[in-house]
Design a protein that fits this description.
285 residues, five-stranded mixed beta sheet, 25% strand, binds zinc ion, seven-stranded mixed beta sheet, globular, single chain, 9 helices, Metallo-beta-lactamase, Chain A, alpha/beta
């Protein structure tokens, strides 16, 4: 069971297995004053909030891309990282914790810390490097750089450790892997994620914020509310199609061979292919 968990945790990394991490570029753009989106290797988002108090980082990317992440950060702002918030436990969001969070206070949901401790590599069993020192269950507020940020746990969706970070003044919400912008999402059914929860959380996001809100997800470009709505509507349509095929007596292989999701081919171009999405939907039904 434990081995299976480890393999699944590494799954997002396999999408880049052929690539050289050390040369993976980090793109950067300022989404709102002081709110920077860093994009590692065209695949993984990190958000940095800079200002008078220093840097607040949301997620830390892969362990193997920490150096270029920190180099990019230094070019944006010389001040130290004061806080590092993890949106959830996965290695493409927490892998850089030990370095990026070295002199910072690391904050995460209670379950994120529990998973990180349970899944530490054998050689790191006695080390607390990069582990969250502040955890919460429902929500917390944080004053930083003249703004009050709201950190909120949403019910089990992508995993059961997901939090979102709202910047009310900037009208930006960092939603972690509740957004795979333009792609089929990964739903970690082995770590508390649920299909229904994922959809209801994204619907909660579209219902809570406004037309000017910018949503930064863990993967893909930043989205407006209209784009987020369109994305979840398409995913919902694919679920309906898969379930209809299932109710007509088709098994997983038959559904995959029938190319029912061909219209949304680009959705499968990241790391959850159409076939994996079909498996997720069938497993989550
Ligand atoms: Zn994830």
């Amino acid at each position: 069971m434990k081995i299976r968990f480890v393999l699944l945790l590494l799954a997002p990394v396999f999408a880049f297995a052929q690539r050289d991490y050390s040369s993976m570029p980090v793109a950067h753009n300022e989404i709102a004053p002081g709110v920077h989106r860093l994009y590692i290797g065209q695949g993984v988002s990190v958000t940095a909030f800079t200002g008078q108090d220093g840097i607040l980082l949301i997620d830390a990317g892969y362990e193997q891309t920490t150096r270029q992440l920190m180099d990019t950060l230094k070019r944006i702002d010389q001040r130290p990282v004061t806080y590092l918030i993890n949106t959830h436990l996965h290695g493409d969001h927490t892998g850089g914790n030990a370095v990026a969070g070295n002199n910072a206070t690391v904050i995460a949901h209670t379950n994120t810390k529990a998973y990180l401790m349970a899944e530490r590599k054998p050689e790191n069993q006695s080390s607390s490097a990069g582990l969250p020192s502040i955890t919460f269950d429902n929500e917390m507020r944080l004053q930083f750089n003249g703004q009050e940020l709201l950190l909120k746990h949403l019910p089990a969706g992508h995993t059961n450790s997901d939090i979102i970070v709202h910047f009310p003044e900037s009208n930006v919400v960092v939603v972690g892997d509740l957004l795979f912008a333009g792609y089929f999402p990964f739903i970690d059914l082995n770590r508390g994620g649920t299909l229904e929860g994922y959809f209801s959380n994204v619907r909660h996001l579209t219902g809570t914020y406004n037309d000017q809100t910018i949503f930064i997800g863990g993967h893909g470009p930043a989205f407006s509310r209209a784009q987020l709505s369109e994305w979840i509507d398409i995913l919902s349509e694919t679920v309906t199609i898969i379930r209809r095929a299932q109710s007509e007596g088709m098994n997983a292989d038959e559904i995959k061979k029938a190319n029912l999701l061909q219209k949304w081919e680009s959705f499968g171009s990241f790391f959850i292919t159409a076939d994996r999405w079909i498996d997720t939907v069938l497993a989550g039904s």
